[in-house]
Specification:
Blueprint (H helix, E strand, L loop, with lengths): L14 E6 L6 E10 L4 E11 L4 E7 L3 E6 L4 E5 L6 E5 L2 E5 L7 E7 L2 E6 L3 E6 L2 E7 L4 E7 L2 E6 L2 E5 L5 E5 L4 E7 L8 E6 L2 E5 L5 E6 L4 E7 L2 E6 L4 E5 H33 L1
Antiparallel strand pairs: 1-2, 2-3, 3-4, 5-6, 6-7, 7-8, 9-10, 10-11, 11-12, 13-14, 14-15, 15-16, 17-18, 18-19, 19-20, 21-22, 22-23
């Protein structure tokens, strides 16, 4: 694994949607889905479990696409789209369906701090914690991605960015269009953490009040975004990968601001000279 060498390969059915492996378990979990072009919908999906060696342990097939997978020590949770919506829970006793929100399919999710938070296509935010399901918020538009932040939850909706506390109260929001993903990471100007959002070819950072702080222009649209501590990684549509480190990014932004200040000072000086010539 240290040199990036391929150890094994397994072909799934349709597209490979998500892969999860908990450290120390030696087990790899994956989901796949088959899209029917003629009908414009997903016709069959599957959950796969492999040993670390690549040997297939089990596969379960079902009609709905799983839009999120959470892996616990004793169970696996799959958040489902239509027609059933709700979730599938896999334990030693088998695979069981459980309802969440009537007629509101799961669109995304995040696992952490002992719970799974699910975003739904009609704007509902639900939580599954220790097997207990609850709805904490109902937003005005569908949720496209969701993530944990220091103050609670960051939800990217069809109409913009929403910040919620863990009880579902909306703390802040904006109407920035076309956001596809968001993560919490470092600030390029101080020690405060910011929310970074991917918007086509741009990375835009927002403070906790959802005010725009900084923008990074990239050469291709973003397809993935993740962060860990002082590092942030952005994957682009053209296959390139950008890594941002907090200290280096702060130096770059400070240098840019310094150059901008020098240019503004030079421009002001030239305008003063022109005014004196006119006199």
């Amino acid at each position: 694994m240290d040199d990036g060498q391929e150890l094994w390969r397994q072909k799934l059915e349709g597209s490979a949607d998500e892969v999860v492996s908990l450290p120390g378990t030696g087990i790899i979990h994956a989901t796949s889905s088959v899209f029917d072009i003629e009908h414009g919908d997903f016709m069959e999906s599957a959950y796969w479990r492999f040993e670390h060696s690549g040997d297939l342990m089990m596969v379960h097939r079902f009609d709905e696409r799983p839009w999120h997978i959470s892996v616990e020590s004793d169970s696996v949770l799959l958040g489902l789209g239509r027609p059933r919506c709700g979730m599938l829970v896999l334990t030693q006793d088998g695979l069981e369906w459980e309802g969440l929100v009537d007629d509101d399919p799961v669109a995304c999710g995040i696992q952490g701090i002992g719970k799974t938070v699910l975003g739904h296509s009609k704007g509902t935010v639900s939580i599954v914690e220790n097997g207990v399901k609850s709805v904490i918020a109902e937003l005005d538009s569908g949720i496209e991605s969701i993530s944990f932040i220091e103050s609670g939850i960051s939800a990217v909706t069809e109409s913009g960015l929403q910040i919620l506390d863990m009880n579902g109260k909306v703390l802040a929001g904006n109407n920035t269009p076309m956001i596809s993903d968001s993560v919490e990471s470092f600030s390029p100007i101080d020690d405060e953490s910011l929310i970074w959002a991917s918007v086509d070819k741009r990375l835009i950072s927002f403070n906790r009040e959802c005010q725009e702080i900084a923008v990074i222009e990239l050469r291709a649209p973003l397809t993935s975004l993740t962060a860990n501590g002082n590092m942030m990684a952005a994957g682009l549509e053209d296959g390139s990968l950008y890594i941002f480190q907090s200290e280096l990014s702060r130096r770059r932004f400070n240098a840019m601001n310094s150059n901008t200040g020098d240019e503004d000072s030079h421009r002001s000086s030239m305008l003063d000279k022109l005014r004196r010539l006119r006199e």
